[in-house]
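Researcher: Please generate the 3D structure of the following complex. Treat every line as part of one assembly.
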Amino acid sequence: MVYAVIMAGGIGSRFWPQSRESNPKQFLAIHDENTLIRNTLSRLQGVVPDEQVFVVTHRRYVDRTREQLPSVPEENILAEPVGRNTAPCIALAALQLLARDPDAVMIALPADHVVRNVGRFHKALQAAVRKAEEKDTLVTIGIEPTHPETGYGYVQYDSQADRNGDDMEALPVRTFAEKPDAETAERFLDSGDFLWNSGIFVWRADAILRAVQRHLPKVFRAFKPLRNALGGPQETEAIAEAYAKSPSISIDYGVMERAEKVFVVPASFGWSDVGDWTAVYALRKKDKQGNTLKGNAILNDSSRCLVDANQRLVVLIGMHDTVVVDTEDALLVCNRESAQQVKNVVDYLRAHQLEEYF
Amino acid sequence: MVYAVIMAGGIGSRFWPQSRESNPKQFLAIHDENTLIRNTLSRLQGVVPDEQVFVVTHRRYVDRTREQLPSVPEENILAEPVGRNTAPCIALAALQLLARDPDAVMIALPADHVVRNVGRFHKALQAAVRKAEEKDTLVTIGIEPTHPETGYGYVQYDSQADRNGDDMEALPVRTFAEKPDAETAERFLDSGDFLWNSGIFVWRADAILRAVQRHLPKVFRAFKPLRNALGGPQETEAIAEAYAKSPSISIDYGVMERAEKVFVVPASFGWSDVGDWTAVYALRKKDKQGNTLKGNAILNDSSRCLVDANQRLVVLIGMHDTVVVDTEDALLVCNRESAQQVKNVVDYLRAHQLEEYF
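Model: Done. Output below.
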């Protein structure tokens, strides 16, 4: 059977002041009226039934996750005692799935992305699942790039492989590339065989575990003892021990870049990782002046602005390309080009122990 | 004796969201830690004792004015039932002074200006008072212009008149000019004999009343019956009647531009009428990046900004030449060049009956 594992570990500080340690990105309704994690679950409908959906999140977010996803069985919300990047998260989920179903196929996907064309998203998943049913095959979804984005990692497929026209199909991966500089991103775009790395993976649970065992033996050794503890009274303690022992590493870097039978399904389904307020601006509907507003806002002689008002009336005069996000206790006013720097401010707040604000 | 009349009738909507109908500009501490009206009183010390200071304000601001100026006798706070520009305000004050002192010399000055050099301000007032002691002489203070400002009216003095070097002395006025366009303002500056019209006047109470009688007979007729009612049980009613009958007109336009013995004392004492947030920016101390901050604000990669934070933390990233004023229920984000337009927003709020915000 096919299962989904929603990875909801992040705290998304780039969406400060809306995102806080107590209210990370996946719980924000930054794109439409629903939270990102709820939309992530919704768009799996038709591919994976809710009772076969699992979520891995930090233990402090378990309750909020249950509130947000009441149709997901409570026992499917897996708590991490500490964030250790994606490899441990996936190892934990794979072990859980195997305990339930030795033939489990697992779709692992982030909780905080946006997809606009769900039909095409489903087709890509189905193509990936078909490929992943082959023994020890690891599949990722690659997004056909629309511009030379420097904020994403890339996957290059083997352009020698036959492609059946437009149909989504799994192609052998030649290489993975980290976030490129602007020049390299241009080159990637021109090449035609580089795709954006979506962070969405499909594999059999046993296959990814074997790959972890081979390429990330330390992670494997940390998690191996869990096999006997899962479902038992020692489960929480065993998980805490596994995370304490495991290194922090991504599945991309730790496994995908090193494994052999790695495939990518090239797809385009209106995907965005919604990395910062500028990405939110790009996603939202704009008026004639290019402004996009939520809440009680009056704009005068202003254009290309994003305003998220909250309780207060927000007035902009003569402002352009500006992000204004107002919350009860903090306000952000930011040039659209500077949205990435929001993270630095949160780092500053942390460094200065201004707990009330991060 | 010399008296001061502080004109505190305005509602100063250009300082929205700090200024409100319930909290007009004169009650704001927009320049330093004191309200503008309190500073206006303080800077009269040494020229006019507090018990000889009068304030004319809208009746709704009488209590707040008393709170702000506890050293001014309560009976010196004169209530206007409605704003009718400066001519009625001055007629009322002149009648009150005459009832007390037939030789009263009156310094009339706005409540919401800023003066940085109080010593030179005093010298200018003293020169004006000396001149105003001559029969039927009306004196205004003119500010030596430092730039071709289009936001002020101008006064031209008679350049044929002898000037004693740097000493402040009263010179005959040749003409008054309304706020000029940019080109005209340049010409005024180049001419050397145009001064900014400060709105500060000095005259004998009887002299200005005679001038009102001659040049604004309708105003005079409206206020004449007050002579007998002042101090009596019908005072409030009589004042209400006078204002109801009086046209709304400024003393500049109604009297100064038409009268004969009009003099100006050219002076420079760091004066500003603090007309909008840009003027506040100009007045405040700036850091190396040209930013000036009040309250809890963090600026990153930002320059030449004015931030007035209130309860909330305010964060600016990549912002330049921006005014951010945060209050409990409303927030302004404004380009410094657009500060004049704040008034339009308040007009909009009024037109849309958004009472809670204006």
